[in-house]
Amino acid sequence: MRIERYQPKYEQDIIKLINNFYEESLEEYVKLDMSALTKTIDDLKDGAFLLIIDGKCEGALAGKEVASPISSEKVWQEVIWYINPTYRHNGIRLLTEARKILKEEGYNFITMVNMANSKADKLERFYSSMGFSKMETHWIGRL
Question: Could you read off the pLDDT of 103-136 as tens digits, one per residue?
Fold first, then answer.
C-alpha cells in the first residue's frame, strides 16, 4: 500500500470510486452527470491523494485550495474522500499523509466535509480525535 498524487493511469479507478461515492452518499441529493464528473476529476487532479493497493487506486482524498475571505493563510478544502469498503481501515493513513504533504506545501488549514447521511456522529468523533474542530453545518434544498 502506498499514497500517491494523481496519475492518469488511475483515472478509470477514480471514476469508479466517485461513482461508488455517489451511490453511497449523494444519490438522494443530486443526479449524476458524467460530463460534470469528468470536469470535477480534471479540476481536482492537482489536489488528489490516492490510496494505491496492488497497483489499483482503492481510495482518494481530493480537494483544492480555496481563498479565505478573512485571512491570507492557505486553506485546502476537501471535495471527496472515499475509500472502497474493503480498504477503509487505510483511511486514517491516507488522511494523515495528505495532511503532512499539505503542511509541507505551505497550507495552514484543511477543511473536511461529511455527508449527514454517512455516519455523521461517528465521523464527528473521528475528526475531533484527529484535532479538527467543527466549524459549520450546511443544509441543501431542491428548488
Answer: 999 999 999 987 766 677 888 888 899 999 988 8
Smallest Cα–Cα separation from 12: which of 33, 41, 43?
A: 41
Cα angle: 99, vertex 4, 115; to 5 degrees: 55
User: What's the CATH class of domain 2-129?
Assistant: alpha beta
Sheet holding 109-111, edge to edge: 2-5, 48-53, 56-66, 75-83, 109-111
Using only C-alpha atoms, what is the Rg of the chain?
15
Helix axes 34-44, 11-21, angle to 10 degrees: 120
Domain boundaries, the chain: 2-129
What digits encode the pLDDT tens for the residues 31-43?
777 777 777 778 8
Residue 67 reports pLDDT greater than 90: no
The torsion of the CA quartet 36, 69, 107, 115, rounded to 10 degrees, works out to -50
In whole angstroms, what is the distance from residue 79 CA to residue 63 CA?
Answer: 5
Q: Which residue has the cell 495552514?
A: 108
